[in-house]
């Protein structure tokens, strides 16, 4: 079941987008151990879900195979929903994705999300290596592939396609929750037409969040999986005990985003490296919609974001070098927001 909207007794749900970032001096194993710690903290603190993303050929990101990482994270947590933010469907055959996530749902019923995107999650050369056919780089077939995926997962609205001949599992008893991801009107309109939840990638820094979520709501048609629109809005968020400390901790993430925008990919620099980085001024001068500050400031800005977008759920991504700082940010935001820790919620 999707979480309810904010009320006097229940704050708007918060979730976590975890990119399994690799910092200077860290190995892939270090990054994945850190992501495990973040997931366990989010589970304990009362966050609704944690998603991991598909990225390839990127030195700063260890999350190349969301289904594998999701299986691990779901196994070491108790109640939090675990999913993809997202699986890039053009990189994979719909039947492969359906089988992977049907299996995950069978292992962890009621806790698996399948966030689907249509971007490659990598550069063009790597996308060709993944797809093996340059003609497959187009996303023109994405709507049909999405329908095939839904049909394979048991959506009875889908007629024809792969589901006529194949099944993701022989006898499924439940299905993962499918969420369509996007940063444009195309995905918003498609999610609305199919009656799916929609997650807008506001953490990318684009200016189109209000227009996209409004288009989603206008396009929405109730479906067997969702009676009313449900919008998840992502945001770069980093909280610390003081505003100055938060801004210091946020600098490695700003340098990483500059590296992405200038196509000079690198691991996330350490705090010490960031302070003396020759591109520090350029990174700090780059426009940003990141929410950075002490817990009171961060909670206030998140409430403004929720009000401006009408979001039903906010998903937070913390970008810095150390896992301790990421976990501390989640703790501070959870306390300021009024999330109920897992033990208290179970009482």
From TrEMBL:
<dbReference type="InterPro" id="IPR050766">
    <property type="entry name" value="Bact_Lucif_Oxidored"/>
</dbReference>
<comment type="similarity">
    <text>To bacterial alkanal monooxygenase alpha and beta chains.</text>
</comment>
<dbReference type="InterPro" id="IPR019949">
    <property type="entry name" value="CmoO-like"/>
</dbReference>
<dbReference type="InterPro" id="IPR011251">
    <property type="entry name" value="Luciferase-like_dom"/>
</dbReference>
<dbReference type="InterPro" id="IPR036661">
    <property type="entry name" value="Luciferase-like_sf"/>
</dbReference>
<dbReference type="GO" id="GO:0016705">
    <property type="term" value="F:oxidoreductase activity, acting on paired donors, with incorporation or reduction of molecular oxygen"/>
</dbReference>
<dbReference type="GO" id="GO:0005829">
    <property type="term" value="C:cytosol"/>
</dbReference>
<dbReference type="Pfam" id="PF00296">
    <property type="entry name" value="Bac_luciferase"/>
</dbReference>
<protein>
    <submittedName>
        <fullName>Luciferase family oxidoreductase, group 1</fullName>
    </submittedName>
</protein>
<feature type="domain" description="Luciferase-like">
    <location>
        <begin position="19"/>
        <end position="312"/>
    </location>
</feature>
């Amino acid at each position: 079941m999707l979480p309810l909207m904010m009320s006097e007794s229940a704050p708007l749900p918060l979730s976590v987008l975890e990119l399994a970032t690799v910092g200077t001096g860290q190995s892939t194993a270090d990054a994945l151990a850190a992501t495990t710690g973040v997931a366990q903290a989010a589970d304990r603190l009362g966050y609704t879900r944690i998603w991991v993303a598909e990225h390839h050929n990127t030195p700063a990101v260890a999350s190349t195979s969301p289904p594998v990482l999701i299986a691990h994270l779901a196994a070491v947590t108790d109640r939090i929903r675990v999913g993809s933010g997202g699986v890039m469907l053009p990189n994979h055959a719909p039947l492969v994705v359906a089988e992977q996530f049907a299996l995950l749902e069978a292992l962890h019923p009621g806790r698996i999300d399948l966030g689907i995107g249509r971007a490659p999650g990598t550069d063009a050369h790597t996308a060709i290596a993944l797809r093996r056919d340059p003609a497959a780089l187009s996303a023109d077939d994405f709507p049909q592939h999405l329908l095939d995926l839904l049909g394979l997962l048991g959506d009875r609205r889908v007629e024809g396609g792969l589901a006529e001949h194949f099944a993701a599992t022989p006898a499924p008893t439940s299905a993962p929750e499918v969420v369509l991801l996007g940063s444009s009107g195309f995905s918003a309109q498609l999610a609305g037409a199919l009656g799916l939840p929609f997650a807008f990638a506001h953490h990318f820094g684009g200016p189109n969040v209000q227009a996209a979520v409004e288009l989603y709501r206008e396009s929405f048609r109730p479906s067997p999986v969702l009676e009313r629109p449900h919008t998840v809005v992502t945001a770069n968020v980093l909280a610390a005990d003081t505003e100055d400390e938060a801004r210091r901790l946020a600098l490695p993430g700003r340098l990483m985003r500059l590296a992405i925008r200038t196509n000079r990919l690198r691991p996330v620099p350490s705090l010490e490296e960031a302070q003396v980085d020759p591109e520090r001024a350029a990174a700090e001068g780059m426009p940003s919609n990141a929410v950075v500050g002490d817990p009171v400031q961060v909670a206030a800005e998140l409430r403004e974001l929720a009000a401006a977008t009408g979001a039903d759920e906010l998903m937070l991504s913390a970008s810095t070098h150390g896992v301790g700082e990421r976990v501390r940010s989640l703790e501070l935001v959870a306390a300021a927001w009024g999330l109920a820790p897992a033990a208290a919620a179970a009482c």
